[in-house]
Amino acid sequence: MIEVIDTERCTACDICVNVCPTNVFDKTDGIPVIARQGDCQTCFLCELYCPEDALFVSPFAEAPQAVDVAALKEAAVLGSYRRAVGWTDENRHLRAADRSYRLFGH
Amino acid sequence: MTNSSGGAEKLSSSAGSIVFDADVLVLGGGPAGTWAAISAARHGARVVLADKGFCGTSGATAAAGTSVWYVDPAPERREAAMASREKLGGYLQDRRWMARVLDRTYVQSNQLADWGYPYPADDDGKPQRNSLQGPEYMRLMRKRTKQAGVTILDHSPALELLVDGSGVVAGAAGLRRQKGDRWVVNAKAVVIATGGCAFLSKTLGSNVLTGDGYLLAAEAGAEFTSMEFSNAYAISPAFGSVTKTLFYSWASFTDQRGSVIPGASSKGGRSVIARALRQGPVYAQLDQADAETQRHMRASQPNFFLPFDRTGIDPFAQRFPITLRLEGTVRGTGGLRIVDDSCATTVPGLYAAGDAATRELICGGFTGGGSHNAAWAMSSGYWAGEGAAEFARQLGTTIGRQAFRRGTVGLHDRSGPPLHGGALARSVQDEVFPYELNYFREAGRLGDSLRRLDGLWSEASRADAPDDQELLRGREAAAMLATARWMYRSALARQESRGMHRRDDYPEPDDRYLHLVTTGGLDDVWTSTRPLASAHYSEAAE
């Protein structure tokens, strides 16, 4: 489930509010809020679309988890999915890294 | 033919609602919906696309990615691709449809390459087009939908269809949940591309897929088919949402004590896993993947590794607990019944595409997994968009046409307490999640479950409309309930095991059931049977 919007990094662009398919976030006058955490389907897409690496989705789908934001930032976990799929300038080559064709037919 | 005539006309924006006038309304913004919208716009229609979530992220494909039934057009390759699936599907497929879907998927996939989708190339430099990264694919589809001139309404779930005095579909109405108002689209044709129903099971990306399109189509009189093929379960880490069953081809499965579970496997042994899960925890470890395979896995599906990297588990070297999450009719093969090559349904002006439509035509009774469903979304989306645009063109002017709302459950004030979507959804889950009810079916258990589901339906249909905050949840739960009843009524009608449908009381296929099961109805759910297309062909040849 979505656990964190890091207030230091968030620029209140509201992209997460728009792109969340299950409408988990609400806009505010500033930083959006996680308004309906229980509706999070743990699809990681808000995190992927966040241009500031300000979001963290915990892999636990059924229950909220306590998380240590400082440690996550220290370990560069925030934004790790975006980097892995090539949605950052430095990693654009990874967009065509799919090797699924080598795995089919197993 | 190819002019994009721009978005639909916005008629008014009075307090509480916004009204559009369009030729074609597409409900759903996943692969099928976006292909349908682009196709309709290219055929000259003014198009509105309304998505419950955000067109580009909602649906099973956007979060997960998918393989694609993309086969080179060499005749022997096509023949092999079709033949390899027939036994699995219980011989219920239609070869004519398989061939036209292969042709259409080839064209659409190549179109994606022309649009800039970054397909990988193999070591010889040959492009590989039988797999799509979900976020990348759907981000591109959103962009192309907008460029085609389609008006996109995000966070705008449909609540009910509109029909004219002769029962022809005339549009739909719904909520704009982030704006706190309503939308109405007056349209000459509607494409249902809302996906299947995975019953809020948290299988990756599927919680927007609650059968909403089924319910509103049924309220306008649409029929369904192959709804008994609805018991697909996917493997995921017990704590997580990432269902990537392909990767479990390299797994060993063990019980609590660490003993290998005999017969358990991702393919052909998933029922063994289901039975083992009823006894206790089951663990997987991807210990059969060599270093090269591990590298390909990492490169191909970064999201598969999120639950592991973030919990400190090495899935290749350590065992982790797994579960099976219900994928229902998302990976099943049933859905709205298609009556012709344009993907028309039994309701005039109503078309269906993607997982909302039946995939029995190419899959028979066994899931095609992502591969066939992705091919179907591209193909049926293309045809449904084209068919809807042509229907709209032939209908001509609709000035002065009266439209009537067809929504039922949860939308009107009745005599009961307000519909409680959350509680109802949990009650439906209790009937469709358990393996002993849905995976392993038997007449007595199915019958008991149906009685409980029928009871829930009669309660729900007497309930008052909930307030706007709860309205969508109520309609979603009602759609899940209706879907479960079509599934189990159809499952009772098929007294054999065929495709993915398993009956403990009839464990073998029985040639007396080499036909298709149609279903429908809301207060009274009915079933009937239809012969296979191949039976029609042989009749015509005589």
Which assembly state applies to the chains in this document? heterodimer
Q: Going across the biggest sheet of chain A, name each strand in turn.
A: 1-4
Indicate the radius of gyration of chain B in whole angstroms. Answer: 22 Å
SSE order of chain A: EHEEHEHHH
Based on CA inertia axes, which overall geometry of chain B fits? Answer: globular
Amino-to-carboxy terminus distance of chain A:
32 Å
Query: Quick check: average pLDDT of chain A?
Result: 96
User: What structural class do you assign from the helix and strand content of chain A?
Assistant: alpha+beta
What portion of residues of chain B is helical? 25-40%
Strand residue percentage of chain B: 15-25%
User: What is the count of DSSP helices of chain A, taking H or I runs of 4+ residues?
Assistant: 5
What percent of residues of chain A adopt helix (DSSP H or I)? 10-25%
Biggest β-sheet description of chain B: 9 strands, mixed
The helix/strand class of chain B is alpha+beta
Low-confidence stretches of chain B: 1-5
Proportion in β-strands of chain A: 5-15%
What does this structure look like?
The complex is a heterodimer of chains A (106) and B (542). Helix content of chain A is 24%, strand content 10%. Chain A has 106 residues and is an alpha+beta fold. In chain A, the strands form two sheets. Chain A has a two-stranded antiparallel ribbon with strand order 1-4. The longest helix of chain A is centred in the C-terminal third of the chain and has 6 residues. The mean pLDDT of chain A is 96. Chain B contains 16 helices and 19 strands. The two termini of chain B are 40 Å apart. Chains A and B meet through helix 1, helix 2, helix 4 and helix 5 of A and helix 8 and helix 9 of B.
